[in-house]
Design goal:
By secondary structure, this protein is an alpha+beta fold. It has 3 domains: 316 residues, Up-down Bundle (ABC transporter transmembrane region fold); 221 residues, P-loop containing nucleotide triphosphate hydrolases (Rossmann fold), CATH 3.40.50.300; 145 residues, Jelly Rolls (Sandwich). Helix content is 56%, strand content 14%.
């Protein structure tokens, strides 16, 4: 087997040490209930007048409610005991008027609060969404999609429930408690002191239980985010799950995840309930002490009966209000945890920003240049090392090289998804860091390996290239991309909704829509990142022609591992291990017999019919396979004739670790990953194989179990050779057997086979 270098992996930006340090820092800064309330006040600043009016209404309404129990004192001491009917009628009338006024004000405050709460929550949701659009590409590689989704679902839902339903209730009860305490001091300050001590003890116990409850709730939300992430991944991976019969495995893994979540969630729920239960019981205990003391004072004549009744009603209301407040505490804790995670998202800073003095980029006229560029996705990683190159405007160039050599990273720098660690990227002498990102990307368009389509109509997906384009312009772009007739054949034509990620369309149709989008944007610079590597030969050939037409009169920069279009390129840049090792035209590079010549030789020597259903290998091409390298031409022809063509869709497991090694494969077209199972049954990637790579050669003559697995990363076309057929050929030709046994013996004496 000829192993390829590990595939370039931007997602590997996580560093365990950084993650742990970040987690410890966040624990120290975790938001409590008062922090949550302060955050809400900040979000409510644009509505200060409405907020002030709401507070005024609620203060008057609850002040009247708190004062109502005073009526019992006047009814008892000034009306019932002295039998004064006029006072009785007056007091009852005043109480009814106060109740009506309080009710009207509370209804008005409810109406005002619902408007305020909705505005604040909408502002919060909108700011989160806008902030996500401003963050750099690195953020989306670093933070899983499920984690981001959880901010808008679990976290925001906790905040919304508390703000809409619990907060006004808690606010009202807090105001009621303050008024009640004041009235208790007016009636009897000694007894009121008992109540005040009870309130203080309740507050302190609530503080003691709030911190562990908040931490536990945050951990629970983090696990909920991971569950959401697993769910999204499983939904997207259903074809692979079903093909490889992974249902039992993923269910078992999810079962363990739910077991861990049960422990975290049950602890979080218990601690949140303690924030309610402990303060409530403390207040009830001190309330009983206070009423008992009041009864003794009345018995000995220090309090009137009316004062005792009023005090008891006020104290009962106070205890109930504290109980209602503590009932709200778990929801406030959850909301504080959710708001902490939301503000953590809003505190994320984009890595790539426009300078204050940044200017618009003029229309490219001369060249694109990289000068001594060094870059890595993390501080400890270097993907590009001291790379310098120049691309004249209106030329077609290719970036080629083994997987993981840094060629796609150059496109990321050209688009300014990242800034170089050292050196500069410039267009016509303008360092990209000195121009606005919007003006830079107005001059560029990209066709990716798997171009993203939104779940909307075909027309709107194409129109993304130019948002004010007319229907005629959209259809003209579709015609240029040779997708117009196909679209017209759909029942809804251009109004057909393509489904999630364009799932209702084939791979070739999705790529043609992406090309139409690029044509519509009419960019002076076109970037192609493995734009055809996932397509079948017929579609690839057709789309190549469309891309050639699209590239006329503009600068085209293509990242590709497939070299079929290389002879037509104006210049080819060859990368290896993060460095630029060769530059030139196709013929020049072949004469140098360097890395490019090796890549070209590896991919040539195969014939593929128009349908892609039949492939052949030229006998001389087979000489590059070590165990066949010593065979003469006639023997190579005999071997070439017994190869058969196999097609495998993306995601197919071609060989499985531990299976008998009974077949040899050459990749004619496509990409595949080589991996082994780790101790925890995780997949550990060893290499990425591409066009011209091969594996399983020792399986031709030795029954050696496979030491690794191979899965296709794209639709693949293989030439395969069964061990039985090859053994039969060797029996017919002793010369072939002798030469091959010699090579195999030498190989086993020097190294272990990597995939057999």
């Amino acid at each position: 087997m000829v192993p390829a270098e590990p595939e370039e992996n931007v997602e590997g930006v996580f560093q365990c040490e950084e993650g742990k340090a970040r987690e410890e820092e966040e624990t120290e800064k975790r938001m409590g209930i008062f922090g949550f309330l302060r955050a809400l006040l900040c979000w409510g600043r644009p509505y200060k007048k409405k907020t002030a009016f709401f507070v005024l209404l609620i203060l008057i309404a609850l002040g009247l409610d708190a004062a109502l129990p005073l009526g019992f004192k006047f009814i008892t001491d000034d009306a019932l005991i002295p039998q004064n009917f006029q006072v009785l009628v007056l007091v009852v009338g005043v109480l009814f008027v106060a109740l009506v006024m309080s009710t009207l004000m509370q209804v008005g405050s409810d109406r005002l609060y619902t408007q305020l709460a909705t505005k604040v929550l909408n502002d919060l949701r909108f700011n989160m969404y806008c902030h996500l659009q401003r963050l750099s590409t690195s953020f989306y590689f670093r933070v899983p999609a499920g984690e981001i989704t959880a901010r808008f679902t679990t976290d925001l839902a906790a905040v919304e429930y508390t703000v809409v339903l619990c907060l006004p209730f808690a606010l009202g009860q807090s105001v009621f408690v303050l008024f009640s305490i004041g009235l208790l001091f007016v009636l009897e300050w000694k007894l009121a002191m008992f109540s005040l001590i009870g309130l203080y003890v309740s507050y302190k116990t609530e503080q003691l239980t709030e911190k562990p409850a908040s931490e536990a709730d945050t951990r629970m939300k983090e696990q909920q985010a991971r569950i959401t992430e697993v769910l999204q991944e499983t939904v997207n991976a259903q074809p692979v799950v079903k093909v490889f019969r992974l249902q039992s495995m993923i269910i078992e893994r999810f079962k363990h995840q739910m077991h861990d979540f049960f422990r975290t969630a049950s602890r979080a729920a218990f601690l949140s309930y303690l924030t309610e239960r402990v303060p409530d019981r403390c207040m009830a205990f001190f309330g009983l002490l206070t009423i008992s003391a009041g009864a003794f004072l009345t018995f000995y004549g220090f309090l009137t009966l009316g004062e005792l009744i009023t005090f008891q009603v006020l104290l009962t209301g106070l205890i109930n209000a504290v109980g209602e407040l503590t009932w709200s505490a778990p929801y406030l804790v959850r909301a504080a945890s959710g708001m902490h995670r939301i503000e953590k998202l809003l505190d994320e800073k984009p890595d790539v920003t426009d300078l204050e003095e940044a200017l618009p980029l003029p229309h490219p006229a001369r060249e694109i240049a990289l000068r001594n560029v060094t870059f890595g996705y993390t501080e400890k990683q270097t993907v590009l090392e001291n790379v310098s190159l120049t691309i004249p405007i209106n030329q077609s160039v290719l970036f080629v090289g083994p997987s993981g050599c840094g060629k796609s990273t150059v496109l990321n720098l050209l688009l300014r998804f990242y800034d170089p660690r050292q050196g500069s990227v410039a267009i016509d002498g303008h360092d990209l860091r000195t121009v606005t990102q919007d003006s830079l990307r107005q001059n560029m368009s990209v066709v990716l390996q798997e171009s993203f389509l939104f779940n909307t109509t075909i027309r709107e997906n194409i129109r993304l290239g130019k948002q004010n384009a007319t229907d005629e312009e959209v259809e003209a772009a579709a015609k240029a991309a040779e997708i117009h007739e196909i679209v017209k054949g759909f029942p809804d034509g251009y109004n057909m909704v393509v489904g999630e990620r364009g799932g209702k369309l084939s791979g070739g149709q999705r790529q043609r829509l992406a090309i139409a989008r690029a044509i519509l944007s009419n960019p002076p610079i076109l970037l192609l990142d493995e734009a055809i590597s996932m397509l079948d030969p017929v579609t690839e050939s057709s789309i190549n022609k469309s891309l050639e037409r699209l590239g006329k009169g503009r600068t085209v920069i293509s990242v590709t591992h497939r070299l079929a279009s290389a002879p037509k390129a104006d210049c080819i840049f060859v990368f290896k291990e993060g460095g630029l090792v060769e530059t030139g035209r196709h013929e020049e590079l072949l004469k140098r017999r360097g890395l490019y010549a090796q890549l070209w030789r590896k991919q040539t020597g195969f014939m593929l019919d128009e349908t892609g259903n039949r492939a052949e290998a030229a006998p001389e091409r087979l000489r590059d396979i070590p165990i066949l390298s010593n065979l003469d031409e006639e023997s190579l022809k005999a071997v070439a004739e017994i190869f058969i063509t196999e097609r495998c869709p993306k995601g197919r497991l071609v060989v499985h670790e531990g299976d008998p090694g009974d077949k040899f494969y050459i990749i004619v077209r496509g990409r595949a990953t080589v991996f082994r199972k780790g101790e925890l049954e995780e997949e550990c990637q060893i290499a990425v194989l591409e066009d011209g790579d091969f594996f399983g050669e020792i399986a031709l003559v030795r029954n050696v179990p496979r030491t690794a697995s191979v899965r296709t990363l794209s639709d693949c076309i293989f030439l395969s050779l069964a061990g039985e057929q090859f053994l039969r050929l060797m029996e017919q030709s002793p010369q072939i057997r002798q030469e091959i046994e010699k090579v195999i013996s030498e190989r086993f004496s020097t190294q272990d086979p990597s995939i057999e």
